[in-house]
């Protein structure tokens, strides 16, 4: 079984992935931000490194999904391959930070990869307002995220909402996270877990 968590930067994907992996004894697969050789350069010079960063993430997540499908294990994944192609890459292109040539090359790679992997059995989308995202980003204190603007986050949020409205690849759970505290409030976590349990009954 493949569960995936989607959401904007700072929405709480890694936190919820960790908690659910512990609760259900699932194997977590996290987004590669620690060893990513392009992330810091990208946030300081987006137009120069946008294509490199997106191809790196696309390659990383493609490998993840292949490993998930081949493992036969119960997996929970932090961010999906679809977000790179439907949210981040087109946003960079629209902002003039990725050339038409690079965007077409990237899109062609994604279409090829998408045809070789399956969608998650359950997609959990964490919906968050921009002020909440900003607060979460500041709290975790990653240096390379200091330059992320509210406009950038707002544009990503709009693209996330458009993508989720048309998502039809499998089960979908939308969670509004602005007033939730998965770590500090056990009741919040239990409510989320109950919603997941209901959907898992139809998958198992």
Could you please describe the fold and organization of this structure?
The protein has 204 residues and is α/β, with parallel strands linked by helices. It has helices at residues 13-24, 39-44, 46-71, 81-94, 100-114, 130-140, 150-165, 186-203; strands at residues 2-7, 27-29, 75-78, 122-127, 171-176. Helix 6 packs across helix 7.
Feature tags:
12% strand; alpha/beta; 204 residues; globular; 5 strands
Number of helices: 8
Share of helix, binned: 55-70%
The ordered H/E elements are EHEHHEHHEHHEH
**Could you describe the largest sheet, including whether it forms a barrel?**
5 strands, parallel
Mean pLDDT across the residues is: 90
**Adjacency order of strands in the biggest sheet:** 2-3-1-4-5
Query: Structural class of the helices, strands and pairings?
Result: alpha/beta
* Unreliable sequence segments: none
Question: Could you write a compact summary of the structure shown?
Answer:
This protein is an alpha/beta fold and 204 residues long. 58% of the residues lie in helices and 12% in strands.
């Amino acid at each position: 079984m493949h569960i995936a968590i989607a959401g904007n930067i700072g929405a709480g994907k890694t936190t919820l992935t960790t908690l659910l992996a512990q609760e259900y004894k699932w194997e977590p697969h996290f987004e590669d931000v620690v060893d990513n050789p392009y992330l810091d350069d990208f946030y300081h010079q987006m137009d120069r490194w946008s294509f490199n960063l997106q191809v790196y993430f696309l390659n990383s997540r493609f490998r993840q999904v292949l490993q998930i499908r081949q493992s036969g294990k119960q997996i929970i994944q932090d961010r999906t391959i679809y977000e790179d192609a439907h949210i981040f890459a087109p946003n960079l292109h629209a902002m003039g930070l990725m050339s038409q040539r690079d965007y077409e090359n990237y899109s062609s790679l994604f279409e090829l990869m998408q045809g070789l992997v399956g969608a998650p059995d359950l997609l959990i989308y964490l919906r968050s307002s921009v002020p909440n995202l900003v607060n979460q980003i500041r709290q975790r204190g990653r240096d390379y995220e200091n330059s992320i603007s509210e406009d950038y986050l707002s544009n990503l949020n709009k693209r996330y909402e458009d993508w989720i409205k048309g998502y039809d690849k499998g089960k979908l759970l939308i969670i509004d996270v602005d007033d939730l505290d998965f770590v500090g409030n056990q009741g919040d976590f239990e409510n989320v877990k109950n919603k997941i349990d209901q959907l898992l009954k139809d998958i198992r």
